[in-house]
Amino acid sequence: xxxxxxxPKHLITATGQxxxxxxxxxxxDLSVYWYQQSLDQGLQFLIQYYNGEExxxxxxxxxxxxxxxxxxxxxxxxxSLELGDSALYFCASSVEPGYNEQFFGPGTRLTVL
Amino acid sequence: xxxxTQSPEALRLQEGESSSLNCSYxxxxxxxxxxxxxxxxKGPEFLFxxxxxxxxxxxxxxxxxxxKKESFLHITAPKPEDSATYLCAVQANSGxxxxxxxxxxxxxxxxxx
Lengths: 113, 113
Fold this sequence. Notes:
The complex is a heterodimer of chains A (113) and B (113).
Chain A lengths: L4 E3 L2 E4 L5 E6 L6 E8 L3 E9 L2 E5 L6 E5 L5 E5 L8 E8 L8 E2 L3 E5 L1
Parallel strand pairs in A: 2-11
Antiparallel strand pairs in A: 1-3, 3-8, 4-5, 4-9, 5-6, 7-8, 9-10, 9-11
Chain B lengths: L2 E5 L2 E5 L4 E8 L3 E9 L6 E6 L5 E4 L2 E5 L3 E6 L8 E9 L9 E2 L3 E6 L1
Parallel strand pairs in B: 2-11
Antiparallel strand pairs in B: 1-3, 3-8, 4-5, 4-9, 6-7, 7-8, 9-10, 9-11
């Protein structure tokens, strides 16, 4: 158990819908990262937050957005869902600054029908 | 653009048959190279961080090494419980406190009793 929690574990929804994925980092970690894992693309970085502020963006679609709240938990919002958005979404956290290891949560499996 | 290539894609070993997994990388200033283990449907589990060429780290039957262009994960006398996908990732000195990881697609290891 990495200490990172994610909810829900599974999410099944229809095209065009909007969902919210939630992540709580390890106690003491200030930085949160979101990754998407699909069979053909592998693990892809989406976005990073540090202490409530956006720090870096990867190949995140405009339909996707995220935020980190004062209690450091983070939410990833996915809207206008398409079949291709079906994937595993992972959250990771790390201590900042100076610590590089990222610890991953168990993931949310999103299925878009 | 940072790139990570892992080989082989899949590896089947008999229990006790030692082998190595390869991770070749291209990065503009390496901050760290990471190895993770991932079981099906689970989040990646952190194994090692390597920071500079020549560095080695060990954990049980696993040993990770780093050169300027690649890293190896050596598995000595593997057991069936070592079966998993092993992921390699690099972190670049991109500045501005961005610590995103760029992952390879992984090597799926199967250890046969």
